[in-house]
Design goal:
The structure holds two protein chains of two kinds. Chain A folds into two domains: 10-166 and 368-388, Rossmann fold (3-Layer(aba) Sandwich); 168-365 and 401-408, Dihydrodipicolinate Reductase, domain 2 (2-Layer Sandwich). Chain A contains 13 helices and 18 strands. Chain A has helices at residues 10-18, 53-62, 78-87, 97-102, 118-127, 142-155, 169-179, 209-212, 223-240, 345-352, 367-381, 389-408, 416-419; strands at residues 29-30, 37-38, 44-49, 68-74, 92-94, 108-111, 131-134, 159-161, 186-194, 246-252, 265-271, 277-283, 291-297, 300-304, 309-313, 328-331, 334-339, 412-413. A ten-stranded mixed sheet of chain A has the order 16-17-15-14-13-9-12-11-10-18. In chain A, strands 5-4-3-6-7-8 form a six-stranded parallel sheet, with helices on both faces. In chain A, helix 1 packs across helix 11 (367-381) and helix 2 (53-62) packs parallel to helix 3. Chain B is of the alpha+beta class. Chain B has helices at residues 14-35, 43-50, 60-75, 85-97, 103-110, 142-156, 213-216, 250-263, 265-274; strands at residues 5-10, 56-57, 118-121, 126-129, 161-166, 170-174, 185-188, 196-200, 205-211, 240-247, 279-284, 289-290. A seven-stranded antiparallel sheet of chain B has the order 1-5-6-9-10-11-12. Mean pLDDT of chain B is 89; it is low at 215-220. The chains are: A alpha/beta, B alpha+beta. Chain A binds chain B through residues 20-22, 57, 60, 63-64, 83, 86-87, 89-90, 197-198, 200-202, 204, 258, 342, 361-366, and chain B through 15-16, 18-20, 22-23, 30, 40-41, 43, 45-46, 48-50, 53-54, 56-57, 59-60, 123-125, 157-158.
């Protein structure tokens, strides 16, 4: 199935990254059915529900977005709430998110709660008239995800899901190269997120374990495929411009025998309509391969990870003009071209010659910051956020179907109607 | 922070200890990302880029650290100064070229150095610079702060015996070893690297060491002293080979070790006499140490 919005247009991305401490461009449109305009310099009142580790990480960046004021935080754990309030100084604290949603002055809400609560809280927030940025994965179930999308449509509120890698400039750059055909015909993709650790947070009181370690419990979590895999599935779907039609795989609880209910290792193969296969793996017992996506075409291979991307030419492929100027490095004994969206070809050439460049980038916004700016900008100017509920639903479907396939040890087909909302 | 963090945790449940250690190391990794002024995506890089134009809200740990740095700067008459970045950059280039910077360049850099150019607003956790070109470099206090945060997490989860080390230049001893013996840390002899000039037994205390080229790595040939005096703009002129500070707060011990090394023996002794809870072990040029 083809995705509707395969890439962020240059105009949308520039708009998204143009917001600075000093302010944003001059436009203001009617964004809601009630006719309430939000101008470029109007303050948006925002709140956050869920101020655990991820919530506080997001909040720490969100408070920097220009013309946004965080007026409320909510968390059921006192310690987490205190931490959120120390970041959003002057905000009011809530233990019950419904009281927060009752406030008429709040226009936007960030949701960073356990997966199984994404849909109920997001739906309540949308119905309360709030625009919503919800952490990934979209929802615990396919039905929940579809409900979120439908309610966003019905209410006319913005709904954005936190697959923030789409905003990373290196990934944006890689997307252009892939779609310019630099890799030739892509036939396979390999992706993995391998770490070495139990993934379990310390919890001195066993009665609180499900609250603290919700990722380990099936009623709360979709495990590794949701918490880690969904990031990478989203990237692959985006790069390829299509979504899987089938998946098979195997997972297990084979090492961390600590009472967890979700797999401690997963490996799946996804089939795309074009014939492309994606091999995906996530381990908790070995970090050698780390995190990366590897796109393999008949002319070249693109390896993307968190802080860099490398392009390897197939021996029989033509050399492109710019490749001579590019900065090269070795990875596993093979020479590859380093891609860096922050550097021009001229800078790359000079760097290859060993010079320090005065114009080197001193600051860049990370993908979380760009994601947040896109969200608040979409509220002002009405554009659809780059990580829309549509693409997030596609990712959610693929992740959950992978879990089903592993559970049944059967190839699971994903017909087009499963993706429709 | 360009160093290795290590920790030893003691307790009855190894799996639990590993979980706590992972949490503490995650926090260190997070801080490394936030405080690293050489990472364009870090919180400090963002601050350095924008704080001259308008106040920048920072996350609470960074604000807390900047407040510690401000206080230490005041108390050491500017010997410790996190705004010395323009001077550090200047002397780093000098190290590559082998040529001392001209006095005019040092003078120009000095106009952008000084905590008086930095305003901290506690009501909003925001920072503002009063001119362009001011920049913050937390290299002299970041490791100590990361150790402080790691120890806070370890304590929070009920662990009473631990040793946390940041590159072996800042070490915190929590409680005692499991057998009741104190943690024991040796100070290396500046020339005879297999020998120790002294041993310290920190109990719920940190110790940090700052020193000249011989203290850091005998194999590394350096043209210029790497610790720059923020007041003169030039490499440290000191009577010390190294300064070790022992105090309950690792961020403070890290910052003060730099200040003591810069200002020398007399300053360090006066400071310790005036501040309860701060001790120092100084290695002088003749090779003898003194508390």
């Amino acid at each position: 199935m083809k995705q509707e919005d395969a890439g962020l247009t240059r105009r949308q991305f520039l708009k998204g990254s143009a917001a600075t401490v000093a302010g944003i461009g001059a436009f203001g449109v009617f964004t809601e059915a009630r006719g309430e305009a939000i101008g470029p310099n109007d303050i948006i009142n925002a709140a956050i529900i869920g101020t655990g580790a991820q919530g506080c990480s997001l909040l720490g960046k969100a408070v920097k977005v220009a013309n946004v004021s965080f007026v409320a935080c909510c968390d059921i754990q006192e310690k987490n709430l205190a931490r959120g309030l120390s970041i959003a100084k002057g905000a009011e604290g809530y233990r019950d998110y419904r009281q927060l949603l009752d406030r008429k002055d709040i226009q936007a809400v960030i949701i960073a709660v356990p997966l199984y609560l994404h849909a109920p809280i997001a739906v309540d927030a949308l119905r309360a008239g709030k625009h919503v940025l919800c952490e990934k994965m979209m929802a615990y179930s396919i039905d929940d995800a579809k409900q979120m999308l439908r309610v966003a449509r019905q209410t006319g509120r913005k709904l954005q899901i936190g697959h923030q890698r789409r905003y990373d400039p290196n990934y944006q750059h890689a997307y252009k190269l892939v779609n310019d055909g630099v890799l030739g015909k892509i036939t396979h993709v390999r992706a993995q997120w391998n770490r070495n650790g139990s993934w379990r947070r310390p919890c001195p009181d066993p009665k609180l374990d499900e609250l603290v370690n919700w990722r380990m419990y099936r009623r709360c979590s979709q495990g590794l495929m949701a918490e880690l895999g969904s990031h990478q599935l989203d990237v692959v779907n985006w790069m390829l411009g299509e979504t899987p039609r089938a998946v098979m795989g195997v997972g297990g609880i084979d090492y961390w025998k600590d009472g967890r209910e979700v797999y401690d290792n997963v490996q799946c193969i996804f089939e795309y309509p074009s014939g492309i296969k994606l091999q995906y793996q996530s381990l908790t017992t070995n970090q050698y391969d780390g995190f990366a996506e590897q796109f393999m075409g008949d002319k070249g291979t693109l390896v993307i990870s968190t802080d860099r991307a490398l392009l390897f030419r197939e021996p029989k492929a033509e050399q492109l003009v710019w490749q001579d100027m590019a900065h090269k490095e070795k990875l596993a004994g093979k020479e590859g071209i380093v891609l860096d969206a922050s550097k021009t070809p001229r800078l790359q050439q000079q760097q290859a010659q060993g010079e320090k460049i005065a114009g080197e980038v001193k600051v860049k916004k990370d993908d979380y910051m760009l994601e947040l700016e896109d969200f608040f900008l979409s509220i002002r100017d009405g554009h659809e956020p780059f990580c829309s509920p549509r693409v997030a639903l596609d990712t959610c479907v693929a992740s959950i179907k992978a879990n089903e396939a592993m559970e049944k040890l059967e190839r699971a087909t994903i017909p087009p109607e499963v993706y429709r909302a | 922070m360009a160093c290795e963090f290590e920790m030893i945790l003691s307790g009855p449940d190894p799996a639990y200890l590993e979980q706590v250690a992972d949490l503490a190391l995650d926090e260190i990794t997070r801080l490394d990302g936030a405080l690293n002024c050489f990472d364009p995506a870090s919180e400090v890089s963002y601050l350095n880029a924008y704080a001259a134009r308008a106040p920048v809200i920072v996350e609470p740990s960074l604000f807390e650290l900047l407040a510690v740095a401000r206080d230490v700067s005041r108390e050491t008459d500017g010997a410790f100064d996190i705004t010395a970045g323009p001077l550090i950059d200047l002397w780093r280039k000098a190290e590559r070229t082998g040529r001392e910077p001209p006095s005019e360049a040092i003078g120009a850099a000095l106009t952008r150095v000084g905590m008086e150019h930095v305003t901290l607003d506690e009501s909003s956790n925001s920072i503002q610079f009063d001119r362009e070109g001011v920049s913050i470099n937390l290299g002299a206090v970041g490791k100590g702060y990361a150790v402080r945060r790691a120890v806070e997490i370890i304590r929070e989860y009920g662990i009473e015996s631990a040793l946390v080390s940041a590159g072996k230049s800042t070490v915190y001893g929590l409680g005692t070893q499991p057998d009741g013996e104190p943690w024991r840390i040796g100070i290396r002899h500046p020339d005879r690297l297999d020998e120790r000039v002294a041993a310290v037994e920190p109990r719920d205390e940190a110790m940090s060491t700052s020193g000249g080229p011989r203290q850091r790595d005998a194999a590394v040939e350096e043209r210029f002293e790497h610790i720059i005096d923020p007041v003169t703009g030039r490499p440290a002129q000191t009577d010390l080979i190294s300064a070790t500070v022992i105090t309950p707060d690792p961020a403070l011990s890290d910052a003060l070790s730099t200040a003591f090394y810069l200002r020398g023996r007399a300053f360090a002794l006066d400071y310790c006499r005036a501040h309860e809870g701060v001790r120092a072990l100084l290695v002088e040029a003749v090779g003898e140490g003194e508390f």
